[in-house]
Amino acid sequence: MTKTTVRPVSKGGGFAASGRPSEVGPDENSGPRKSRVPRANKSRRAVIRAVASDSSSASGSAFVAPERVVVAMSGGVDSSVAAALLKERGLDVVGLTMKLHVLPGTGTVGVSDEKQRLGGEAARRDAGRVAAVLGIPFHVADFRRAFEREVVAEFVAEYARGRTPNPCLRCNRFVKFELLRRRAARLGAGRIATGHYARIDFDEVRRRWRLLKAVDSEKDQSYFLYGLRQEDLARTLFPLGGLCKTEVRKIAVKLGLPAAERPESQEICFVPGDDYAAFLRRRVPKAFRPGPIVDRAGRTIGRHEGFLHFTIGQRKGMGIAAAHPLYVVSLDAASNTVVAGPNEALFGKTLVATDVNWVSIPGLEGPRRAEVKIRSRHEGAPATLRPAGERAVAVEFDEPQRAITPGQAAVFYDGDSVLGGGLIWGRPKITY
Checking phi first, is residue 374 left (phi over 0); if not, alpha (psi -120 to 50) or beta? Predict the structure, then answer.
């Protein structure tokens, strides 16, 4: 068994804005002006010391690093507590909220209050209030152009290709970590932190940083972070990885943070009302063309008003009367066709993942066993990985898996360790 020596890596969160933050301009603009730093009162500092001590014991590691760290703050409970814990552990903490998008239709029916908060003025107010409570500097960075280019535009393009993307994957890789690291460097910080539930350690044998599942399996977010590179992991802190969500909320309550009881949103932050079809129709109206729904033999059994309305495994919305339930089995963007079939047609044992990023290992030299997750809520299933070309991996599961969906991520695990992952390209028949 490989011996792994853990170097405790602090972990941080993401919060929102308030007060009078310094406004960091668009990605290409010059550096920010530093905001006034309010002082936290003595009683609150005492609580922070107490809960930080408790959480250090819970995660089984002490942290000593007198360096500056920029914490991504969204105004939510996770990033707020992460910032508090890092501050007490001796770091010079700076809070920063990322301005990512302007919601179309904000303030109108169909856009939730929580979604209006994310990426809006309310988010910056909330994060600023937390920064004031903790007595840390606070900044706002405008990443809207990069977010549109790297996340929103690609989300739309993938749907137009007949795939089902997960925009959080690209956001983490190209915005929340890459751009945040650059901005942190301009603020004199060598590290960044977020409120993600995941852990990082260093493998002394392989000389590589490892990404690990969080202690709280219900909140684990390692699936969304497989795209992080070694240089990202070396400079990133995840303070909540060793805590359960219930513990985090208790800490927030003790600190009197305004986000302590705020409910979480599972929606995509830039899609109003979680209405994907309406959002996509505004962006690519020409893609919404009537077309055939066919069975697996190619016989037309219905019509659709645009294949972008559908995703693999979907049952509702086809409007077809049949003797047995029908599900979307595949999408063909080139012919504008939706293929439907019975539930058993959704099961497959193989996939090819492309654009693979290796995390805890440098790559594959031959077949390797792993547990593979094909979506964030998938429990994971045992499989064999094999090299399939440059940055591509062929995956063969021991047992058939339901709804292997192109555009989603396949993430490879060895126990708690993320080996790597890539985007599902398709479900080919693999021969060896």
Answer: alpha
Rounded mean pLDDT of 396-401? 98
Note if 269 is an active site residue.
Answer: yes
Is 171 known to be catalytic? yes
| Residue 104, C-beta contacts closer than 8 angstroms, at least 6 positions apart | 272, 282
User: What are the structural domains, with CATH classification, of the chain?
Assistant: 22-272 (3.40.50.620), 289-341 (2.30.30.280), 346-426 (2.40.30.10)
343-352 confidence digits (pLDDT tens): 999 999 999 9
**Which residue has tokens 């590290």?**
191
State how far the Cα of 429 lies from the Cα of 432, in Å rounded to an integer: 10
pLDDT tens per residue, range 174-212: 999 999 999 999 999 999 999 999 999 999 999 999 999
Main-chain dihedrals φ then ψ at residue 295, nearest 5 degrees: -85, 180
pTM of the shown model: 0.81
Q: Say which of 169, 171, 410, 423 is annotated catalytic.
A: 171
CA gyration radius, the chain: 23
